[in-house]
TrEMBL record:
Keywords: FAD, Flavoprotein, Oxidoreductase. The lineage of its organism: Bacteria, Pseudomonadati, Pseudomonadota, Gammaproteobacteria, Pseudomonadales. Pfam families: FAD_binding_2. Its EC number is 1.3.99.4. It comes from the Bacteria. Belongs to the FAD-dependent oxidoreductase 2 family. 3-oxosteroid dehydrogenase subfamily. Its cofactor is FAD. PANTHER family: 3-OXOSTEROID 1-DEHYDROGENASE, FUMARATE REDUCTASE. InterPro entries: FAD-dep_OxRdtase_2_FAD-bd, FAD-oxidoreductase_2, FAD/NAD-bd_sf, Succ_DH/fumarate_Rdtase_cat_sf. GO terms for biological process: steroid metabolic process. Residues 12-551 form the FAD-dependent oxidoreductase 2 FAD-binding domain. This is 3-oxosteroid 1-dehydrogenase. It catalyses: a 3-oxosteroid + A = a 3-oxo-Delta(1)-steroid + AH2. The keyword Flavoprotein applies.
Length: 581
């Protein structure tokens, strides 16, 4: 366990959790002269944020403006209102729009955090008014992790699936170029590999790239910026409860190093400790069934909803408790968590069916809508869509990746791990034999494939309009005509992979106001308590407006919370402290 200095037990602000939102709030609080402590339950910092894509959805951002992009507060609000519908709180949405772009401008100007605009990454609902075909998602630049010095081993490691060849860092923009096989992609791969190989000095220390990308870059650059400010981060420190002074939250109780400590927060406590996705009991209580913590693509064991339960215990209101940031996942033996299937569903030639052999959704749909459709179909079909099956043929297998399977032209079946056959993927010479192996209705599957092969020829998916909008086509193969998301399945062998109804975090949590303060049922804030990220009910309601729709708000409300705390006239004098347990 990393030793931390426990001589100081009183701070202006205590932040619970070390995801990107939590660290952003700590950074902005420190920059306004407040003393800040971050406590983190795990022996690694960064949470799910560190293994994520690190993308942030920031409407009206300055990067897009700098390349001549056209966005505006009005257009962004029009889109957000349409996306969030009845679940959108106009005041919180306004606070988000007012603060997201200033937050990232200030953060990048005053820290090691660096972003670039993903100018062609479309909003997830291109059919809605105010949607843009690109420019609102920002993608982290690479970060040199040698700058983390002694804090490098404590950084949560990214999933190998996010690294080229399991070890080389690349931005989401580069990964997309390679996946979509856009012009010059082979040259790009060559350059990335050469850069990695020629870094002889770092090669002697580690087989992993010196650079971090995606969420790892975001978290590493935030951590380095907090080190510059001497903000302490205590690992292995488990938040257990809040301390109260009357009805005001004035500190927290933590377990660390075999002891229980009381830590005082003179100004405020900020909960940034993630959702409850790793708590099977809470999943069964709140989420649609069936549900499993093991289907979640988040790090196991940490985000168990401690802050949520502590907040509810002192009267906080909650919202959206039956929602998650859904994403289908594939379990891989030996890996600590399953892998999210974000992009590959849109590649031409893979279809998804229930055990009746029927499609039920546009496979290229955003991941939240995809799993939502799985649950809806599961209800309609009396339990036949959770899990579902992604089916593809030999041509797809040769050309494209799916989950942990690299294209066969790079890693043929003979070089796949033996234990993956019949656990990660199933394979047969005919569709009928494949259907038998996985318990899918063979006639249903044959009918579906026949239909889809016809759609591939005409380019029009008459059932689900796959490939009919700019978002679907973003992950399609631009070399495939007439529809980059549709190709026939007709070349054996045939393959199947199991898709679970997974998530990348829960969406419901403590209800907050436009200042990120936790509120009671009557809307009154609980003094001294703020919540950001997935332990708060999402400002996005049940929607996922674009890539970065979870981290963008987490960081923005982190910034808002820090500003609100710093602007309070004076710290309340602490009187008697009461521990709830
Ligand atoms: P976390 O980042 O999980 O941080 C919570 C921290 O709190 C953890 O470190 C945890 O250990 C700690 N903690 C929990 N309980 C306690 C306790 N009792 N005491 C102390 N500490 C505690 N979202 C995007 O917006 N853009 C993307 O590109 C993106 N890509 C993703 C890719 C993948 C593969 C995955 C899995 C997710 C992705 N997401 C993305 C989702 C995003 O990562 C999460 O929604 C986000 O990280 C949640 O942030 P958070 O701060 O709420 O939680």
């Amino acid at each position: 366990m990393t030793a931390h200095d426990q001589s100081q037990s009183s701070y202006d602000v205590i932040v619970v959790g070390s995801g990107a939102g939590a660290m952003t709030s700590a950074l902005f609080a420190a920059d306004q002269g407040l003393s800040v402590l971050i406590v983190e339950k795990s022996d690694k910092y960064g949470g799910t944020s560190a293994i994520s894509g690190g993308g942030i959805w920031i409407p009206n951002n300055h990067y897009f403006a700098a390349i001549g992009g056209q966005d505006s507060p009005e257009l962004s609000m029009q889109y957000l209102k349409a996306a969030t519908g009845e679940h959108g709180d106009p005041q919180r949405l306004q606070a988000y729009l007012d603060n997201a772009a200033p937050m990232i401008k200030k953060l990048t100007a005053s820290s090691h955090v660096r972003y670039a605009v993903a100018a062609k990454y479309p909003d997830y609902y291109p059919q809605l008014p105010g949607a843009l075909p690109g420019g609102r998602t920002l993608d982290p630049e690479l970060f040199d992790t040698s700058l983390l010095a002694e804090e490098l081993p404590n950084l949560r490691k990214p999933s190998p699936s996010t690294l080229l060849m399991g070890r080389i860092a690349w931005t989401a923009r580069d990964a997309h170029k390679a996946m979509a096989r856009s012009f010059g992609w082979q040259w790009l791969i060559f350059k990335l590999m050469a850069r990695y190989k020629l870094d002889f000095k770092w090669r002697r220390k580690s087989k992993y790239d010196r650079r971090a990308a995606l969420g790892s870059s975001l978290v590493a650059s935030l951590r380095r910026s907090l080190m510059d400010r001497n903000v302490p981060l205590w690992l292995n420190t488990d938040f257990q409860d809040v301390l109260l002074d009357g009805d005001r939250v004035c500190g927290i109780k933590v377990a660390t190093g075999g002891k229980v400590l009381e830590l005082k927060a003179r100004r405020a406590v900020i909960f940034g400790s993630g959702g409850f996705e790793q708590n099977q009991t809470l999943r069964e209580k709140y989420l649609p069934q069936p549900t499993r913590a093991s289907w979640s693509a988040t790090p196991p064991g940490n985000n168990t909803g401690a802050a949520l339960e502590a907040g509810m215990h002192i009267g906080a209101a909650t919202a959206l408790m039956d929602w998650a940031w859904w994403a289908p996942t594939i379990a891989v033996p030996g890996e600590e968590k399953p892998r999210g299937v974000f992009a590959e569903r849109a590649f031409p030639g893979a279809i998804v069916v229930n055990s009746l052999g029927r499609r039920f959704v546009n496979e290229a749909a955003p991941y939240l809508e995809f799993v939502d459709a799985m649950y809806q179909d599961n209800q309609k079909t009396d339990g036949r869509s959770v899990p579902s099956w992604v089916i593809f043929d030999g041509h797809f297998r040769h050309t494209y990746a799916m989950g942990p399977l690299m294209p066969a032209q790079v890693v043929p079946d003979s070089r796949l791990r033996k234990e993956w056959l019949n656990t990660v993927y199933w394979k047969a010479d005919s569709l009928e034999a494949l259907a038998m192996q996985i318990g899918v209705d063979a006639q249903g599957l044959a009918n579906t494939v026949q239909k889809v092969n016809g759609y591939a020829q005409s380019g029009v998916d008459l059932d689900f309009e796959r490939g009919a909008n700019v978002f679907d086509r973003y992950y399609g193969d631009s070399n495939v005509k007439p529809n980059p998301c549709l190709a026939p399945l007709r070349k054996g062998p045939y393959y199947a992979m199991r898709l679970d109804a997974g998530d990348i975090g829960t969406k419901g949590g403590l209800l907050t106001n436009r200042h990120a303060q936790v509120v009671r049922e009557d809307g009154q804030p609980i003094p001294g308590l703020y919540a950001i990220g997935n332990c708060s009910a999402s400002v996005m309601g049940t929607s996922y407006p674009g890539a970065g729709g979870t981290l963008g708000p987490a960081m923005t409300f982190g910034y808002i919370a820090a500003n609100h705390i710093a602007s309070a006239v004076s710290a309340p004098a602490s009187a008697k402290v009461r521990v709830l347990s």
